[in-house]
Amino acid sequence: MKNFTPYGEPLIFSGRGNASLAKKICAEMNVQLSQADVFDFDNENIFIQLHKSVRGRDVFLIQGLGPPVNRNIVELLIFLETLKRSSAGRITAVLPFYAYARSDKKDKPRVPITARLMADLIITAGADRYITVDLHAGQIQGFFSIPGDELQVYPLIAEHIKKMTLENPVIVSADLGFAKKARNIAERVDAPLAFIEKRRISGQAEALTVIGDVENKNVILVDELVETAGTITEAVGLLKRSGAASVRIACTHATLVGGAVERLKASGIAEFICTDTVEIPTLDTIPNLTILSVAPLLAGVIDRTNKAESVGAFVGDTLDL
What we know:
By secondary structure, this protein is an alpha/beta fold.
């Protein structure tokens, strides 16, 4: 029996936040990317106009929220508003990278919970559903009052590590908060697990000690996000001083701001592994770069969402439930 799709074939739009990933997703689904005019006026106001009617249709808006972060956020909200006022039947915000995710709690006096504010803005602007990848903290799902799916890409990273067939590999979690996902990777590649202990001193996180055995081992240092690369390259140095034979970095999101590329160059890592949830404009300058695409995963989830099929049956344990 053919599945009932109340909204018909999906329409996929893209903001400027990660247009290259949107094109890959459309290629995976064998659909055309729906077109819209998206540009800035001289006064920095953003203008959006759709090229086709979306009335009653199932619309998926792909918008990365990497740098320039605040422009991409405002563009997302205006795009959602445009779709809502154009009478789209259902609007799903596809957010490969969720900005402000680290601001998920009040960890000091008189500070905001910006991750919650982001969810409120996305809902108010018109999103009926959301799809995102590797949130900084699971409780962010609870900030949304609309249904959605958080996908995890550690199986993708684990599969790449397995293909390398390294001798004496060890998975090292760059942060104790990432320990659960690091353990999942270690189990998939049949490797031992170690940890970097970090402490925040005068507002700066510093790598202090290695918990576990890394001597004469090929280390894969895993984390969910690399931004300035300051702390993680400190961890690389610590691992080398602890006797690691080689060190690779693997992460989901690589925003690479504030001198990150220079730090990675100077770190002497054997490989930098990330996904394409964030566009990386400096491809030629990052040493030993490997980019794993999340396009097949997102394309499959979009397709099943449109067809009202089980997402969990497709992604299995890559869905954080």
